[in-house]
Amino acid sequence: MLRVVFISGISGSGKSVALRTLEDAGYNCVDNLPVRFLHDFIATAHDDGLQRVGVSIDARSSGDIARLPAIITSLRALGTEIRVVFLDADTGTLVQRYSESRRRHPLSQKLFNAGVSPSLETCIAAERDLLGPLRELGNVIDTTGLTPGQLRAWVRNVIQADSVPLILTFESFAFKEGVPLDADLMFDVRCLPNPHYDPVLRPLTGRDAAVAGFLEAIPSVGRMIDDIAGFVRTWLPQYMQDTRSYMTVAIGCTGGRHRSVYVVERLAAMFADQGQVLVRHRAQKHFDLYEPEHHGGPQPHGN
């Protein structure tokens, strides 16, 4: 069966990195394919016996973007396995990336021709409106604060996930770094006791046995995890009935290092029987060098 991965998202959010990740994974990739050629391209890929195809479609194809959700639905009805990865980042991060690259936003000329002052912030806002329908179709990855290595790892996790009705992602984050844009559900665990104040536990993370033991011994931590799990189990079927195939549950604490990481790991284990479960730790880049009891990056659960 032909597997197609669409890469879309806001300009400056890392689509080039994501597309190169697909190429490295053996996908035949096309960047900026006009939407009107999509059916012919997929048909040709079928005829040529290709098994994995990556397509980047974004604001540069603005005239046809509105047709893309219906086209994806029709392709799926014909038996094509399609996965959509939508990349985003907060506006401040996008502005900084554009200032560093000195590139022009793809919508700037269109807005200028329409008599609108094409400031970078205005272009980004217009692009968010334009691509809103695509965002609802895919697995959203907020690339704010991510290193290219993290983004590559997260994209690989998504494309390597099994073909199941739902991909459920548990993601830890630090409130001091801002709220992630890719969260469908978000829970705050800052009310739990903080291992940061123990000098022995401070350099560790929620994936280390010492931190896990500290938190497991506190009854309120277990109650919090059970309450979050109960909420997700209760409402997950309703989200799935809404034809949703991706769900991201974000767990936040102050530094994104101890409590949220531990809770995410526990929840991922509890939901290992719910289709494909992925784990993301947004603060990973800050603690990789200080993990004596854990080796390797975040791994999919439930395989």
UniProtKB/TrEMBL annotation:
Sorted UniProt keywords: ATP-binding, GTP-binding, Nucleotide-binding
Highest taxon listed in the record's lineage: Bacteria
Residues annotated as binding GTP: 58-61
Record-listed ATP binding positions: 9-16
Keyword hit for Repressor: no
InterPro entries named in the record: P-loop_NTPase, RapZ-like, RapZ-like_N, RapZ_C
Domain spans labelled RapZ-like N-terminal: 3-162
Record carries keyword Nucleotide-binding: yes
Domain RapZ C-terminal: 167-283
HAMAP family the record matches: RapZ_like
Name of the protein this chain belongs to: RNase adapter RapZ
